[in-house]
Amino acid sequence: MGFGHYSIEPRDMNTSTPTQPPERRDRLIRERVHDTYKLPGKLREPTCCPQCGACFYRGRWTWTHAPEGKVFEQVCSACQRTNDQYPAGEVTFRGEFAMRHREEILNLARNLEATEKSEHPMNRIMGIRDLGDEIQLTTTDVHLPRRIGKAVYRAFEGNLDVHFDEAGYFTTIVWERDE
Ligand SMILES: [Zn+2]
Questions:
Q1: Which residue in 130, 135, 144, 171 has its CB near the most CB atoms, within 10 A?
Q2: Residues 59 and 140 in one domain
Q3: Over its length of 179 residues, how does the chain's per-residue pLDDT go in tens digits?
Q4: What distance in angstroms lies between residue 48's CA and the mean position of ligand 1's atoms?
Q5: Are residues 61 and 115 in the same domain?
Q6: Residues 71 and 100 in one domain
Q7: How many domains does the chain have?
Q8: What separation in Å is there between the alpha carbon of 70 and the centre of ligand 1?
């Protein structure tokens, strides 16, 4: 299997390497076979998640309460991924500038998540880990990382690398700025 890649900074084209660790590739292959988190196709309506309250209704997840009557219960894919610590995407912020401006960058990411999540309940930040010289942010979906990466790039420039697997099951973003 291959990994798609593009870079917004042309000078990065020859120096970038995929950031997927080998074990993640194995997980991707497993997920491609089992596809355990793609539940909506099998859900009866309305189904509500007892953990976060999101409801699957009329073909999509929403925060609006389902109508009166029988409601099915199932933990949603975003909560399930969070419970399993099994992200669908990852954003890494690196570089001295990034570390000096970590709060601004994370606020931007959180604000973007709040907007995104209000429309798309399955798109969420799963966790944020500050490793001192870089920050790793994980998400429950494959779209949020790219949106966060592009917003940070628009606000602070720097270098943005986007990696995604061909099947579309995992997105990895690396944003870097030193000065
Ligand atoms: Zn949920």
A1: 144
A2: no
A3: 344 554 544 433 333 444 545 555 555 544 444 455 655 557 888 999 999 999 998 889 999 876 778 889 999 999 999 999 999 999 999 999 999 999 999 999 999 999 999 999 999 999 999 999 999 999 999 999 999 999 999 999 999 999 988 777 899 999 999 99
A4: 8
A5: no
A6: no
A7: 2
A8: 18
13 C-alpha to center of ligand 1: Å?
39
Angle at 56 between CA 72 and CA 85, to 5 degrees: 95
Would you tell me the crossing angle of helices 102-119 and 144-156 to the nearest 10 degrees? 140
Give me 86's structure tokens. Answer: 């099994």
Residues bordering ligand 1, an ion, CB closer than 5 Å? 49, 51-52, 76, 79
Return the ∠ at Cα 28 (arms to 91 and 41), rounded to 5°.
95
Q: What is the pTM of this model?
A: 0.78
Q: Which of 23, 55, 75 is the last residue of a domain?
A: 75
| CA-derived radius of gyration, the chain | 17
State the amino acid at position 91 in one-letter form.
V
Question: What phi and psi values does residue 116 have, to the nearest 5 degrees?
Answer: -65, -45
Q: Which domain holds residue 108?
A: 85-176
Any domain includes 42: no
Structure tokens at 80: 């399930």
- Is residue 69 located within the same domain as residue 139? no
